[in-house]
Automatic annotation (TrEMBL):
Record Pfam families: GIY-YIG, HHH_5, UVR, UvrC_RNaseH, UvrC_RNaseH_dom
Name of the protein in its database record: UvrABC system protein C
Binding partners and assembly: Interacts with UvrB in an incision complex.
Residues of the UvrC family homology region profile domain: 253-475
GO molecular function: DNA binding; excinuclease ABC activity
Amino acid sequence: MTDLKEKLANVSSAPGAYLMKDDAGKVIYVGKARNLKKRLASYFKSPDQLDMKTGVLVRQIVAFDTIITGTENEALILESNLIRRYRPRYNVILKDDKRYPSLRLDVQNPWPAISVVRKIENDGALYFGPFTSSRSVRQTLNFINKTFKLRKCKTKVLTKRDRPCLNCQMDGCLGPCCRKVDRAVYDGIVREVILFLKGRTPELIQEIETEMAAAAAVQAFEKAAELRDKMFGLKKILEKQVAISKDLKDRDVLALARSARHVVITRMAVRGGYLIDSRHFTFPPTLSTDAGILDAFIRQYYEKSRFIPPEILIPAEAEDAELLEGFLKTLKGKKVSLLQPRRGEKAHLLKMAVQNAGDRLRSLTESAETGIERLSRLQKRLRMQRFPERIECFDNSNISGTSPVAGMVVFENGAPKKSAYRKYKIRTVEEHDDYAYMAEVLTRRLGKGAQSEPYPDLLMVDGGKGQLGIALSVIRELGLEGAFEVAGIAKKDEKAGETEDKIYQPGRANPVIWGRDGDLLLFLQQIRDEAHRFAITFHRSRRRKNALTSEMDTIPGIGRQRKKALLKHFGSIRKIRAATLEELGAVPGISLKMAEAIRNTLRP
């Protein structure tokens, strides 16, 4: 601490960002400050003057670095970049939204089409979402396809067709690929889709009613009936949305709830006065204050968002409200207000969001408590020395020894931790041998010394007594006896009259008897089934990749374009194999040296 205080004496009073490091040199916290010297000094006071959360952080700080910026706004941007780069454990880090589906409308295309994507890119297209579930995005897409006559073909460039497709014949598409379609009409449909996806459904309904009345006035009854059906469909959707704001403005409402285990932020999206979406974001416990968490969330979320409303309601005053509003204004190009309402309609919206966040937190807490209680019973039933917080399960997958692979899944506190899943290609076993496959995979997982940590509390192998014996053999060879518990799971033998799967443990001849704890067996079966799914999915992808690999992919110097030219010239690999050097050399782009390589590879 003395060294840190000496270094603090030389810190500049300029604005900038700072990085706190632990004894391993790892960045554990990143912050920003208008005055670096003053902010850092606040961390190194007497321990009695620090709150509990800051004290926990300070006790781990061994060193710090500072980066000076020209303005406080530049410090804000630098802090965000450093958090993304180092992902410090004591900062609030918003997970990437790429796993959530969004709808993409390529307005730069002459004939825009709508599609579902999971990654938002800066390509000039309009993105709507992300949606909270695949089901909700499919329902929205189905409604758009049914109501608006955009083209349904997935090709980026519209290709001409001689005859209309089935969608066009069913009057679900105008058919610009094979019919003469007025661009103004198509652009009008695109505009309607954008209004609908932006939550402007009442405005869209009003426009369609006006257009329907005009069509009826000139006795265009067929068009009027079509517009009527579209209007009824939109009104049915509107009935499911809740009108919660009389001023019909766009705004987001943020609320926060936290416990010792979880931090929840709820975002409610209000568009045109209607609540169109509500979504929860969950984070691990953090040392930041409520205001600091909201500050970090707002910066990280809206930096990626395609739409920033003019108002954001928040339950606590932001740490740097003026600076944050300037940051949002830079992103949006217009003023954005952060409001903390105390009364009226906006305060009611905020109260609603707070209730939703609290409900989500209670659900997470109850689920966690249920999971801990279940794991405690599992520990008792299996007579384990340690609490099974981390469970790893291994499974092999192959077909008659072809493309053998294995998968490892990880459950922590009773829930899957997919970031810790691992795939293994079998490298050293030439013949079909499931036991040898398991031995190789376990050796690779556990045999790296300190790099293999963390070890599981319970290691489970799919395959029963045989695979359990292999696991114990590997553990003995690596000197890891007693480091964790081991179990094998075997499928029930229906021919022998067995009614449930079996769990085997070292030193026990018979499988575990579950009695009233049958739910624990179901839990272990769930982990085994997840390992099987993960391994077989990887195996299928390998087989598919191998099936698409051609003999020609192994020829040195022959890439995709030359391979395409050879196949186009000769028609098949059989004819390429039978060709002379002169015939091969006659293909554009194929030199004599390449022709020799082709012949030597295909005709060894």
